[in-house]
Amino acid sequence: METTVNNNDTFYYPSKEIVRHANIKNYEELYSQSIADREGFWAAEAKKLDWYKKWDKVVDDSKKPFYKWFTGGKINIIHNAIDRHLKSATRNKLAIIWEGEPGDLRTFSYHVLNREVSKFANILKSMGARKGEVITIYMPQIPELVIAMLACAKMGAIHSVVYGGFSYEALAERIADSQSRILITADGGFRRGKATHLKSIANEAMKRSGTIEVCITVKRTGEDCYMENDRDFWYQDLMNIPLECKDCGTEIMDAEDALFILYTSGTTGKPKGLVHTHGGYAVYTASTFRNVFDIKPEDRWWCAADPGWVTGHSYLVYGPLLNGATIMMYEGAPNHPYPNRWWQMVEKYGINILYTSPTAIRGLMRFGASWAQRHDLRSLRLLGSVGEPINPEAWKWYHEVIGRGKCPIMDTWWQTETGGFMITPLPIMPLKPGSCAKAYFGNEVGIVDDHGNEVKQGEEGNLVIKNPWPGMARTILHDPERYIEKYWEKYSDKGWYLAGDSARIDEDGYYWIIGRIDDVIKVSGYRLGSAEIESALVSHPAVAEAAAVGLPDDLRGNIIHATVILKEGKVANDKLAEELKNHVENEIGPIARPSHVEFTDALPKTRSGKIMRRVIKARALGLDTGDLTSLEE
Ligand code: WT7
Fold it and tell me: pTM for the full model?
């Protein structure tokens, strides 16, 4: 049964087979129940996990907006993601299928994953790791990245994964902010046929942050790297020590104990370390993954995101493992050595569900359908999209060419802050290309104006969430005031969460995300702050002042446009523009590299001295600059 398009060409309906297969058959009914009794809904979801001790209260709102979930409950996410599966047939099921870019293959059953995680957790403990401390992980996409995360969680440490594409500055800043004493890294990884040199970046970062006492390095590429006596250890050496490493007990945690922090960009130059917990986060990722991706025991699930981002945390690692699923993980670039690399793997491993970003889809679409068409993609049943709005053209290509017209696309809207899906279709829902459909259970979404009034249907407004949910970030590490200011202050009288996106709702109650309303720029789905790029620019000796804005781009969603004022006596030319691009790349990472650097003598500012990025953007696009009354002369 094919997905059918109805007459007015707006809805794509799921086939009977998809509906028959679905875990959830009636969204509207269950949604109304979940809103009428939110605590009841989440208690029922929480009961699907194993608790050492049941919670006393589902949600504690006595210190709003610092909500607490499942207070009094004792749990460890690892007990649910690994330990409990060892008592069933899932023990011998594959937890991870991993393929390296050069084509090497490694697989881990739940039994083997448990063995590796337990061993590494014991090693961490023997190296002095303590419950409640933050351990930084900086790695390529190799299985040890997942093992390291899980081992931290098992022994009660808090992991802070820093994306392997970040530079030493970005890494050093995150290590320093979290005061990590332990760093887990690798010599490098493979990307587009070349070895990256992560350990040398890590070395530089350790020099700058000054807090690291122990660094454990996984040997992946075998390239030479500097290892310091008494500080640096090879992962493989430690794992091969013939110790009695049988069991490492899973630490009993309070539901509200921190599981991880993850840094994300905001409106200031300093990244925010968002804190997620063992209890609520486990309940939320397990529930959303099971229901939205309709996971079945025989499924093979592939989330093509890097674990260094929240998508990888929630839906490469935790959501799938909590559901006992089989995860596909791939190290390298989608088009290496040829643009059929992904489709080859879908065929080879019989992948049933693929979750990726619009940028990746657009990138692969550029090479034409024939690369996908030479592979048997019939194993695919569902597809997913995340990170930025998907344009209908890319949606339709994904649906037709990759999904053969039969796989519903789950366009999931969420954020690092939300922990899991907030607005998303379910497989049974009719779909509209480019819309992320409806609110997930328990959530009430509003599209409101600056005063909190609902805007008219079809009009653009601020996206707010009107209720707490178990997967919500609890705070910003060391900065609770900023947590309030950024997310809760604007609608403090109403108690709503401000997402930072603008959106609209259509006549069928479907949500359409338009984009960020703050100075966050989404490049290829990666989140960057204008201020971060600007501070990287002004750290260059030739630069006096800088402004960075995002400009629309067909492939990457947005590209970075930098406007720069040079210091006295510095000469603007193409060579310097190139140098500045390289500088930003070195400071933050390749994803932050500006596409254009433009020189100017003055930046448009308000009388209070704030850069009017809106004006710069309009000018760069050759558009009307709009209302300039607040512009300083
Ligand atoms: C921002 C959050 C959530 C995992 C990856 C991104 C944008 C995210 C969608 C979507 C349109 C989306 C929003 C949001 N975004 N998903 N399906 N449609 N926009 O997490 O890095 O914290 O970024 O990504 O602008 O605010 P993040």
Answer: 0.95
